[in-house]
Amino acid sequence: MIVKPWTRVTEDKAVTETFVVYGAVGSGSVPIEATLSLLKLPYRVEECAPWEGGQEASRLVGINPMLQVPALALPSGEVISESAAILIWLADTYPGARLAPALTEPARPTFLRWMTFVSSAIYALYWITDNPSRIIAGAEQHAAIKTRLFDRIAHCWQLMEAQLQPGRYLLGEDLSVLDLYVATASRWSPGRRRFYEVAPGLAETTRRVDADPRLTAIWAERFPFTQGWER
Ligand SMILES: N[C@@H](CCC(=O)N[C@@H](CS)C(=O)NCC(=O)O)C(=O)O
To answer: Whose CA is nearest to atom 14 of ligand 1?
Structure first.
């Protein structure tokens, strides 16, 4: 059974308070929204596109000092930023759903390793690829920077492929938040075709996550498989 620490019982009714996800379609908030929906926790999304700068970014002042999505506000008022931290926290707080190996399970180190790898080696690079002028002014160099970083991301997927022996899912027989994280991040540039090429084993499980009926609605709403999505 899933325990909901945020459910309070008042005199006459149970009041379930709501999580707030700061996020956007196709962004790093999607695996978090998917996790919340698998956990059947009440949440709402505050749509925010900080990469547009200006007002959109400043909406995150007081939420996430990095002015990035995703962030998750807990019903207690505490806010967690950093996608990997949020996913791990959700999976650990609701262990009944088995969305992560438990602390003492043999797959736990592997789980933590690849969660932080996706976050630090892959996801962090989009801060540059989304706007290369953050590190170099000359626009003529931006295309080359992007190409190099997308090569780096493909290389990281390849390294992950070489180190991980997936079962039905990346960590074995159970769907975990790592699967949701990889299913989302592997759709960002350089895109799925390249991912399938460099990481065919990961691709097999990731396709299974794309097609998982428990996730059909969330993918359709938050990261639709529109024509040509695989690029
Ligand atoms: N390390 C962060 C990275 C978050 C991130 O890069 N988010 C993107 C959207 S997918 C963003 O908000 N970009 C706006 C910016 O960096 O200015 C995490 O894992 O949550």
So the answer is: 51
